[in-house]
Amino acid sequence: MKSELKHQNLKYFNTFKLNSYTDHFFIVRSFKDLKFTTNIFSDYKDTIVIGGGSNIILPEYIASLVIKVDFSGIRMISNFENTVLIEAYAGESWHDFVMYCINKGWYGLENLAFIPGTVGAAPVQNIGAYGVEFSNCCHSVVAWSLSDGKVIEIPVKECFFSYRSSIFKQELNRNLIILSVRVLLSRKWNPNLEYFKRNDFLSKTPEHTDSINDFIDTICSMRKSKLPNIKEFGNVGSFFKNPIVTKEIFLNALNFFPSLVFWKQGEDSYKLSAGWLIDNCGWKGKKYGSVAVYDKNALILLNQGSAKFDDVMNLAALIASDVYCKSGVILEIEPKVYY
């Protein structure tokens, strides 16, 4: 079949369900398709690679080359006495991959269950939940270099993972198509409960049970209680990062909000609850055009049916400006925004 670009509305390729039109859409399903992307790569100023579309905000019209990766599959690379090295291809559902590993008796990803999106997006955002990040289990990332036209393997140390970020979200965003991830998992289930201990949530977790199923049910229930039904309201989950600030900024914010929710990160570093700040600045349930702040979780913006890119960004700017004026804290948008 001839490799070619096509016109496409990306509404159903992004979970915020924004209408976004491009004449430069291409789905990668084979090595031949990868070579085609290299041949046309230099014709474009920018490249957008999408998976499940759960961490992107797209404009109404896109002049960039838009690539969707459709590789799927899971395989064991190495089988050690206590650990296994597993490779999952970029097009796999992240949650399905987590459950597949659990059912095989491979552990380490449990706290990341029920996170939307595909495997290929996991390293870009360094997805995380309940005290665990993708980087904790990552061995390496396999990608296609658009400029060189070859497959490369990037060790975890060279991914430069940080809070909701990586080299794939920064310098290498344009040049690489992530093909698969390789994770090192344990054969023994040893639940990570540090987040729950720090936040006094042990009563909500199956601490005293040996059942992995109970643990997963609890994780999924907690996430469902915080998230709107994505089939009813388009959204990207958390819209803002929890800001990590210096002691000076923390104390200043605490002066305005004595009940501020925070987590001490180090000698001079504090992570603040962005959702708590937004809520206590009065934004929960507020609307702008067809975009609204979720009335059960102020960290989430909702498409109420006909949201436009400008509405989303204008509401986000109003929220960030208000939080800064009232607390001195700068909020950063978590999903990748394309203009």
What's a concise summary of this model?
The protein is α+β, with helices and mostly antiparallel strands and 339 residues long. Helices cover 24% and strands 26% of the residues.
Please provide a written account of the structure:
Belongs to the MurB family. Its cofactor is FAD. It holds the Pfam family MurB_C. InterPro entries: FAD-bd_PCMH, FAD-bd_PCMH-like_sf, FAD-bd_PCMH_sub1, FAD-bd_PCMH_sub2, MurB, MurB_C, MurB_C_sf, Oxid_FAD_bind_N. GO terms for molecular function: FAD binding; UDP-N-acetylmuramate dehydrogenase activity. By secondary structure, the chain is an alpha+beta fold. It has three domains: 64 residues, Uridine Diphospho-n-acetylenolpyruvylglucosamine Reductase, domain 2, CATH 3.30.43; 153 residues, Uridine Diphospho-n-acetylenolpyruvylglucosamine Reductase, domain 3 (2-Layer Sandwich), CATH 3.30.465; 94 residues, Alpha-Beta Complex (Uridine Diphospho-n-acetylenolpyruvylglucosamine Reductase, domain 1). 24% of the residues lie in helices and 26% in strands. The chain has eight helices and 20 strands. Strands 1, 2, 3, 5 and 6 form a five-stranded mixed beta sheet that branches. The mean pLDDT is 93.
